[in-house]
Amino acid sequence: MNTSNQNSGELSSPRVSDSSPVRSSAHVKLFIPGPTEVRPEILDAQTQWMIGHRMPECIDLVGQILPKLSQVFFTKQTVLISASSGTGLWEAAVRNCVGKKVLTCVNGAFASRFSDVAEMNGKAIEILEVPWGQPILPGQVVERLSSGEFDAVTVVHNETSTGVTSPIQEIAAAIRAMPGGQDIMILVDSVSGLGGAHIEMDAWDLDVLLASSQKAFALPPGISFCAVSDRAMAKAKTVPARGYYFDFISLAKSIAKNQTPATPAVSLLFALDRQLDDMLAEGMEQRFARHLAMRDRTLDYLRGKGFDIFAAKGYESPTVSCAANNLGIDISGLNKYLRAHGMIISNGYGDLKGKTFRIAHMGDTQPHELEELFAAMDGFLA
Ligand SMILES: *Cc1c(COP(=O)(O)O)cnc(C)c1O
Q1: Is residue 139 classed as helix, strand or coil in its secondary structure?
Q2: Fewer Cβ close by (within 10 Å): the C or N end of the chain?
Q3: Which residue among 87, 115, 158 has the greatest number of ligand 1 atoms within 8 angstroms of its CB, and so is best to mutate?
Q4: List of residues 6+ apart from 12 with CB closer than 8 A
Q5: Measured in angstroms, how far is the CA atom of residue 297 from the centroid of ligand 1?
């Protein structure tokens, strides 16, 4: 029983629609970059009666989901749903699309792990590393690719460890303009971007674009999604040892029949179906605008308190803001204080712990909820 919520006066914001008898009353509102806050309606959508994945009900459900998911990815090409978190789709991307050598662009902890995954799957890699806090820029990528050794590149759209967004559209355009650039597989992690930060599969000419449920989609964790270009599908047919679970060819064959080769996470599909309706009802443009407005407000708040922003200017993420701890505050103490007010933010990631902290404004978080967070932070920082 969480009594702190009841003692926090106007700062507590109980869920009005949260009448479920099965949910505990302890609720810490998540301003962390995953899992993000999930609305009660979405939690409830998971509790529908179980169906078999070869039953017409499930085939209809997937059939209903796919066109909506395609809209969120801005694609007419193949969209896959995986019963894994996004990490699984890193493995899928490199196993299916790297035949020769992959250039892995590293500007933070997640980009570094994507690179590790390529290496651990036996792929030849070369790392393009820039300091954390910086974006990956088109010129850097093209320069390294020009040696001609590569048939793929990995890049993270929204680096969650540093709050940096890299200019994926410009990077992809620069690659495509190179001699041989049409054949390079552009493998993009937008795990914490897609659904909140603007990114488009087809118009930007990407090959694999992947995202997890528990970030800007504001769903519970456990499933992930990716769009795969026709070019990547053709490439996969030429790449040996694609493995079994993440083989694009077999996944595509099944999804064409609104199915998956193995059992999908059925309860999460119910939640996804409902959430996609709500995302599209809000409108993707409006969703992007809401995230940008929350980003701008968060940066203003942090600067107003005297914090520097860790991300390079002009590349600050729409979904997560990373403050430098130049004031030397006790970040664990701040979070302890916030918890007593029913909220939580994130300390810095890995080596940045204590040196930075992060506020997620991602998924279904609303501007007025951020104001509640800032009011609570004021109490601690005063
Ligand atoms: C969270 C995150 C991941 C890892 O995704 P999981 O769904 O936890 O496997 C990968 N990349 C980025 C940018 C992330 O934020």
Answers
A1: helix
A2: C
A3: 87
A4: 5, 6, 341, 342
A5: 25
Q: SS3 helix, strand, coil % of the chain, rounded to 5? A: 40, 15, 45
Q: Quick one: pLDDT at residue 308?
A: 98
Whole-number Å distance, alpha carbon 88 to ligand 1 midpoint, is 10
Class of domain 56-279: alpha beta
- Does this chain's domain 29-39+283-381 share its CATH topology with 56-279? no
**Domain range annotation of the chain:** 29-39+283-381, 56-279
165, 193 Cβ separation under 8 angstroms: yes
3-state secondary structure at position 66: helix
Tell me the pTM: 0.94
- Cα angle 356, 137, 162 (rounded to 5 degrees) comes to 10
Matching residue, tokens 């701890």: 325
Domain covering 29-39+283-381 assigned CATH 3.90.1150.10 in the classification: yes
Q: How high does pLDDT run on average in the chain? A: 95
What local confidence, expressed as pLDDT, does residue 8 receive? 39
Six token digits for residue 249: 């060819």
If we measure between CA atoms, which residue out of 221, 219, 327 comes closest to residue 271? 219
> Which of the 8 DSSP states describes residue 318?
S
Pick the closest to residue 193 from 278, 233, 135 (CA basis): 135
